[in-house]
Design goal:
The complex is a heterotrimer of chains A (475), B (304) and C (310). Chain B has 11 helices and 4 strands; from the N terminus they run ααααβββααααβααα. By secondary structure, chain B is mainly alpha-helical. Chain B has a domain of 211 residues. The longest helix of chain C is centred in the middle third of the chain and has 20 residues. Chain C starts with a helix and ends with a helix. In chain C, β7, α9 and β8 form a beta-alpha-beta unit. The chains are: A mainly alpha (475), B mainly alpha (304), C alpha/beta (310).
């Protein structure tokens, strides 16, 4: 086993060195030959090779069965298919990677700051301005998107999906980003919202506009019902309980066939109307539809674009709510609770009620999004509300930066956009998602665009005579 | 009565499997205070490792069951431990001292990654294994119902008891066990006394993974089918077991596993099978609300 | 331990001031451990009361019981507001939740290991402390969302109060930076300012001078004396730094092994043989000399703990 792990290592060590050489040349260091001979003693070199070999051995253990061997169905039962070249490749990559990394660590001068880090540092320092500009562009772009010449039906549809995720992630951001409560069952509230519209429309012919507030209300009540007993729990317990709750809702939807029609789902959910004007080709006798009322030609794009603007407005309401609530005592209490619950209690803040409000409000926005989802698809089934959905929403929040509004937009566009446009690689998307969550947590535990602006500033108008430099110092 | 007895046997067997997985949760929670969300996937990988080893042995012509089983167990434990160790090094180690949600999210990412990694490499299809151990003992025979105890069940229960005893001794008597318990109480102090905390944490993950691998092997030979998704539910149930027993307590994990196994089996036997997972979750919620320290856990005094 | 000397007049404040807080027979057990054993004392209104004692004497446990973080096993903790100020003058703290004690009974506290909201700005920390007034003004968020004038006025007042306390603790210039980036001493002052922003009637300080240098310590003395005089509130403090305790306390209660061993003015406590025994061990001949310099208690305390503890 050990030799297997080591075999690819010696030949790959050479390309590794030359790569290291190029890199160090670019950074204006000593010539690589000098570096290797003069600054890396024989013992260091031996250690490095040992480390790489060990990494290779571990990689071999990891990959040998799952990647190197594949179980296949054969006439007589199960058979095996061997992928040794793939195994050698993976192990080789790990060896070389470990070697290069070890080389880099050993040769790096302690005071040297790589250029990319310096650039990144400067960008982060200006994060608030960057975020503002980015947000402005994103808003204008989102408003104009359906009017663009390249806005195909597919594109607007995809943008609508992205906006649903943005809205969901903003809703979850209240719970996770602001209040610091890890909710792994957020999709349950989305499901409650969807099904409340679907069921009310199916059984009682309620319209979308009547159901939208009800869906939010139902989802919020579910949030309260779940939250009341469990919000006293510590953070990680809460995570697992919410995960369980998400599964319970899904299993109930799946098995309560009399009400929900189980796995078949509910179809022909009515579409929303434009202030009472339906988007149908032929309106009922004596009634108008959208295109006859405005004297337009019928086009199915009208409905698609209407749905797009509808979710855009809903998402913007969510965003506006968060921007405002952060500056209110409730929002500050959420953040304070995230920072230190004991201190909050010592200041008279009721932790349970405060958490509950975050949970319920987050759930409410999930419910709104759910009702929209039901009307957009005109069909709901338990399939749409698996744990994976919760994980994707959470990933958007986490990757974007917990508590960062624009970060959520960036992450949602990247993630869902990538999912849509790389359909050929669909089977790898969840793998990539998982890996991205781990990598981002290690690299930037607070998320890619995490930056916190104070919600209230003390203006030093009276203190001006003390010195103008105050503002400078503060940033 | 006969039916009840049969369910009792089945429940204890299932409980043994949950208990072994639960130990991994309890150990890791005890030492670094986080829920290792990816532990269920470690169990799933253990099951796959066993299946592949079985197939390799079959191809190599080794058919003497006791030896094959031994090899499978060892191979699975070793290879799965590598996963446990690497996971800790990559996904959790760098996050020690970070804000409290970071390792948890990293663990969720790890869990998603491992599940899909296995799915992509091994396919999404259910993988059946021909029964390795057949036969059993008929305990009671009434007219229409036979209570039987299969050899697989005997094996699982005996193996679990043996492993538990060995592991309890390991924690109670060996230097590793002492280091482990010391780190659980106070990592800084343990480090000052010369204990290699990082190594102890790594070893904790390794031992949890090894036990989960055994559980994976048992699951494979007991049910005969595995797929990439078994880790999710088994993981949550085992976590429930750990919480029910009192997280941080070894005996608690075992007791909790047993209870969850029994509850699940009896629920399926006497109520509806569709809602058996709901039953496990509901118990988790109830336990956390009414007795958050679990059955055997000691109450935590909040340090202010 | 022989605490009888002080027990008779346990519930009177030595100076004769009105008792703000009365602790009667407070007992706290953790499993088999008796952390606080039948302690009674009173803290006067507009006075500084210090609780001192060797490490492990149960001081912080008393605090945690007072502020509701622990539920006492036995005993009564009554807080009597000035009859003019509140509608409800009398609170039994042992029956109240921690956040109610802070909110309704208006007992504020600081922590031995500072607990600020580190990523929030200094000013925001002080705004969180005024949560309830602001929450009401924001119509429990609903009115605030639409930018009601009442809320804006309340917020302005809150900022003014915060500014007042920032001025008092010399942190005005740091108002907009994150609390976690302040130096240690500044964090301690901010925590006191934050507690004061809740407008308490009783301020509980858990080792406020810990980790401060002598100059900061002296400034702290001045701050506490001025808070007492200007705000006319009671201050209860746990402190090891005898230069702080002896200089500013009106009244000192001494704990050892969870029991109260002495209670009285600084002068009385300083000369109480029971205190000297607890701090210095049994060597009676050194009493007078050491008694005057309570600060030098570290080494003898250790000797004592080795010889006396079972």
């Amino acid at each position: 086993m050990g030799t297997d792990g080591k075999t690819p290592e010696p030949p790959s060590a050479n390309p590794g060195q030359s790569k290291g050489q190029q890199a160090s040349d670019r950074e204006g260091a000593l010539p690589a030959a000098d570096l290797l001979q003069g600054r890396l003693s024989a013992r260091q070199m031996r250690d490095l090779v040992k480390e790489s070999a060990f990494a290779g051995l571990i990689a071999f253990g990891i990959f040998v069965f799952i990647s190197g061997v594949r179980i296949v169905d054969q006439p007589g039962g199960l058979g095996l298919e061997y992928h040794w070249s793939r195994l050698v490749l993976y192990v080789g990559i790990v060896c070389v990677g470990r070697f290069l990394w070890g080389l880099r660590v050993r040769l790096r001068r302690p005071d040297h700051v790589p250029q990319w880090k310096a650039i990144l540092g400067r960008t982060t320092a200006r994060a608030p301005q960057v975020a503002k500009i980015l947000a402005g562009f994103a808003l204008v772009f989102a408003l104009l998107l359906p009017l663009m010449p390249f806005a195909s039906r597919y594109l607007v549809d995809t943008a609508t999906t992205i906006l649903i995720y943005i809205m969901l992630a903003w809703g979850l951001n209240i719970v996770v980003g602001l209040a610091g409560l890890l909710d792994l069952g957020y999709v349950a509230f989305y499901a409650v919202g969807s099904y409340s519209y679907a069921l009310l429309a199916y059984y009682y012919d309620f319209s979308f506009w009547m159901c939208l507030p009800l869906a939010g209300l139902f989802a919020a009540s579910f949030g309260v019902i779940l939250g009341f007993p469990v919000l006293r729990l510590r953070g990680d317990y809460l995570a697992i309980v919410t995960l369980g709750f998400g599964e319970i809702i899904r299993v109930v939807l799946l098995n309560w066939t009399e009400l929900t029609r189980g796995p078949d789902g509910i179809d022909s959910i009515p579409r929303p109307t434009f202030f009472g004007l339906p988007f149908t080709r032929r309106p009922a006798e004596g009634a108008d539809s959208f295109h006859t009322f405005f004297g337009l030609d019928y086009s199915s794009m009208q409905r698609i674009i209407f749905l797009y603007y509808l979710i855009l407005v809903l998402a913007l309401i969510t965003n506006l709510f968060i921007l405002r609530v952060r500056k209110l005592p409730l929002g500050r209490a959420w953040e304070a609770l995230r920072e230190d619950e004991v201190a909050c209690r010592s200041l008279g803040i009721n932790p349970t009620n405060t958490k509950l409000s975050a949970f319920a409000i987050g759930a409410m926005f999930g419910g709104f999004a759910g009702a929209f989802f039901a009307t957009k698809q005109a069909f709901v089934s338990p399939e749409s509300f698996t744990f994976i959905e919760s994980a994707i929403i959470l990933a958007i929040v986490v990757l974007g930066g917990m508590g960062s509004q624009i970060g959520v937009v960036v992450a949602a566009v990247l993630l869902i956009g990538a999912f849509e446009f790389l359909r050929s690689l669909e089977q790898y998307r969840m793998e990539a998602l998982g890996a991205a969550m781990v990598v981002v947590m290690i690299w930037r535990p607070r998320g890619l665009l995490a930056h916190r602006e104070p919600t209230v500033l003390l203006h030093h108008d009276r203190a001006l005579d003390l010195g103008e430099a105050i503002e400078e110092n503060d940033s | 009565m006969a039916y009840f007895l049969q369910q009792l046997i089945n429940g204890v067997t299932l409980g043994a499997i949950y208990g072994l997985i639960a130990i991994g949760y309890t150990l890791v929670y005890g030492i670094i205070g986080m829920i290792n969300f990816a532990h269920g996937e470690i169990f799933m990988i253990g099951a796959f490792m066993s299946l592949i080893t079985f197939l390799l042995l079959g191809l190599a012509g080794l058919t003497w069951v006791p030896l094959a089983l031994l090899i499978v167990l060892v191979a699975s434990m070793v290879l799965t431990s590598v996963y446990g160790w690497t996971m800790e090094r990559i996904a959790y180690g760098p996050l020690r001292g970070s804000h409290r949600l970071a390792p948890l999210i990293s663990a969720i990412g790890m869990s998603i990654y491992l599940q899909n990694y296995v799915q992509n490499r091994q396919g999404a299809r259910v993988r059946p294994l021909a029964p390795v151990i057949t036969d059993g003992i008929s305990l009671i025979e009434t007219g229409e119902f036979t209570v039987s105890l299969s050899y697989v069940q005997v094996l699982i229960i005996v193996l679990t008891v043996v492993l538990m005893t060995v592991f309890a001794l390991l924690i109670a008597r060996t230097p590793f066990g002492r280091a482990q318990r010391a780190c659980e109480q106070d990592q800084t102090m343990a480090a000052l006394l010369g204990i290699d905390v990082d190594r102890t944490i790594s070893l904790t993950f390794v031992s949890g993974a090894a036990l989960a691998a055994v559980a994976g092997t048992m699951y494979l030979i007991y049910y005969g089918v595995i797929d990439f998704f078994i880790g999710f539910l088994a993981g949550i149930k085992a976590f429930t077991a750990a919480v029910l027993g009192g997280i941080g307590s070894l005996t608690g994990a075992m007791l909790g596993g047993l209870l969850i196994g029994l509850i699940e089996v009896f629920w399926s036997a006497y109520f509806t099978i569709e809602y058996k997972d709901v039953a496990a979750f509901s118990i988790l919620v109830l336990v956390l609300i009414f007795r958050p320290t679990g059955l055997l856990g000691s109450p935590e005094i909040e340090k202010v | 331990m022989n605490a009888q000397s002080a027990d008779n007049d346990a519930l009177a404040v030595p100076s004769g001031a009105r008792a703000l807080l009365t602790v009667e027979h407070l007992t706290m057990r953790f499993g088999g451990l008796l952390a606080v054993d039948d302690i009674s004392f009173a803290a006067g209104d507009a006075e500084i009361t210090a609780i001192i004692g060797p490490n492990g004497a149960g001081k912080t446990t008393v605090f945690n019981c007072l502020t509701g973080f622990y539920k006492p096993s036995e005993g009564r903790l009554s807080l009597r507001h000035d009859s003019e100020s509140g509608q409800q003058p009398l609170f039994y703290l042992e029956r109240m939740d921690d956040y109610r004690i802070a909110d309704a009974a208006r007992v504020a506290r600081t922590f031995q290991n500072i607990r600020l909201f580190p990523t929030m700005s200094v000013l925001e920390n002080l705004m969180v402390a005024q949560h309830h007034a602001l929450l009401r003004a924001s119509g429990f968020t609903l009115l605030g969302l639409f930018g009601s004038r009442r809320y804006r006025r309340a917020e302005k007042d809150a900022i003014e109060r915060a500014r007042y306390w920032l001025d008092r603790v010399q942190l005005t210039e740091q108002a907009n930076i994150s609390a976690g980036s302040l130096p240690y001493g500044a964090q301690r002052r901010l925590e006191i300012a934050r507690a004061m922003c809740t407008e308490p009637v009783l301020l509980c300080l858990d080792e406020p001078a810990a980790g401060l240098n002598p100059r900061e310590s002296a400034e702290l003395n001045q701050l506490l004396l001025r808070i007492k005089e200007e705000q006319e509130i009671g201050i209860l403090l746990i402190e090891h730094d005898m230069s702080v305790v002896m200089e500013i306390s009106d009244h000192i209660a001494v704990l050892d092994y969870g029991r109260k061993i002495s209670d009285g003015t600084a002068e009385f406590v300083r000369n109480d043989p029971a205190v000297i025994r607890a701090y210095l061990g049994e060597e009676d001949e050194e009493q007078e000399e050491k008694g005057e310099q309570g600060r030098e208690q570290e080494r003898p305390e250790q000797e004592q703990s080795e010889s006396n503890r079972p």
